Amino acid sequence: MPTELSKFANGVRHDWTREEIGEIYHLPLLELVFRAQQVHRAHHPPSRVQTCWLVSIKTGACPEDCGYCPQSAHYKTGVERQELMDPEEVIGQAKRAKENGATRFCMGAAWRQVPEGPQFDEVLRMVRGVAALDLEVCCTLGMLTEAQARQLKEAGLTAYNHNLDTSPEFYGNIISTRVYEDRLRTLAAVREAGITVCSGGILGMGESEEDRIGLLYQLACLNPHPESVPINMLVRVEGTPLAEMPPLDPLVMVRTIAAARILMPASMVRLAAGRKQMSREAAALCFLAGANSLFIGERLLTTPNPLPDEDEQLFRDLGLEAFPSRVIGRDGRAGTAHAE
Ligand code: SAM
Ligand code: DTB
Ligand code: SF4
Residue 270 catalytic? Predict the structure, then answer.
């Protein structure tokens, strides 16, 4: 048992050791969830969640070989390739997202890196258009240079999503076309430009508990912490190398979310992909463990998400309320949400 658990109740630390994180991760589950809930309540309103909406603005034919991803050109998954969408159409979808109660709009592109030239200009137009709707704007476009990050910031981008996915040790088992260091470099460029960081991982890829601890260690030692930490359960897609992975025990999601909540108290922790294959009870435990953000809308990027009706019912049954638009503040920091 860690001797100084009381110091986890308040304060934000970036000097965690892997051993300390291992001790937290391995706490008896109910003890872990209880402590996570205490930390959660010290930093966030207890029943409020951030509602995010995802749109795939460029789909499929990605040159990277991420073993989990239906959009990689290396695998035959049946995902239909779609070139970059028209900015007006994307902005139309953002309006729809807002009408459906979303406060954050996330645009994803199946790129290794952001292309220079007309396509980047189109993305900037999308960002400007969505920001004008008074939604938080997030992009996930692959690797980014410092100059591109600055332009995105100027266009009004709130957040950039770039997941570390797993531990540095396990990374090479999943992806061979880039290295962990590339991911860290992009995250540094995002931070440098003053855009908030959204970074998390995927569970259920065959990683060990040590790898989950290793991922949490990487995230929790970033200074500042990512403002947003998506925890995805692998969506097993036919044709990808990870299609035949055994299903993940949802309690592993609960455990990892609880540890993330304790390690990064002020961050928004997102119960991201995988809700479709999870029971409502498992999702409820994830919220109890400190998740306070989720994707709404019937699609993630290429795979299904729970239907709006099902989510409305879930919100009613758990007494969850969406953060009102912009409560999270233009700087994207969760801290301001508490002062409403
Ligand atoms: N190409 C960009 C990149 O990789 O950063 C942006 C899009 S990519 C689809 C965004 C994230 O989605 C990945 O980093 C990964 O964490 C997550 N993801 C992709 N496929 C997934 C799957 N089958 N299950 C769970 N998460 C997945
Ligand atoms: C994140 O961490 N999860 C989202 C978002 N960030 C971009 C993506 C999930 C993708 C799930 C598989 C798919 O729908 O293609
Ligand atoms: Fe491409 Fe991103 Fe999918 Fe990897 S996760 S194959 S980079 S779209």
Answer: yes
Q: Which residues contact 278 (CB under 8 A, 6 or more apart)?
A: 233, 250, 253, 286
pLDDT score recorded for residue 11 = 77
What are the pLDDT digits (tens) for 126-172?
Answer: 999 999 999 999 999 999 999 999 999 999 999 999 999 999 999 99
**Hey, which of 107, 161, 257, 300 would you mutate to test ligand 2's pocket, going by the most ligand atoms within 8 Å of its Cβ?**
300
Q: Are strands 293-296 and 196-198 parallel, antiparallel or unpaired?
A: unpaired
**Displacement of CA 151 from its chain's centroid (Å):** 22
Q: Which residues contact ligand 3 via a Cβ below 6 A?
A: 62, 64, 66, 69, 71-72, 110, 112, 142
Looking at residue 8, what is its pLDDT?
A: 46
Question: Using CA atoms, how far apart are residues 295 and 275, in angstroms rounded to an integer?
Answer: 9
Give bridge partners of residue 296 from the DSSP assignment. Answer: 53
How remote is the CA of residue 59 from the centroid of ligand 3, in Å?
Answer: 10
DSSP symbol at 296: E
Decide if 106 is catalytic.
Answer: yes
State yes or no: is 66 an active-site residue: yes
Taking CA atoms only, the protein residue closest to ligand 3 atom 2 is 110
DSSP secondary structure string for all residues of 5-30: GGGGSS---S---HHHHHHHHTS-HH
Q: Round to the nearest angstrom and report the end-to-end CA distance of the chain.
A: 37
pTM of the model: 0.92
Q: Active-site residue 286, yes or no?
A: no
- Name the stretches of the chain with pLDDT < 70: 1-10, 325-340
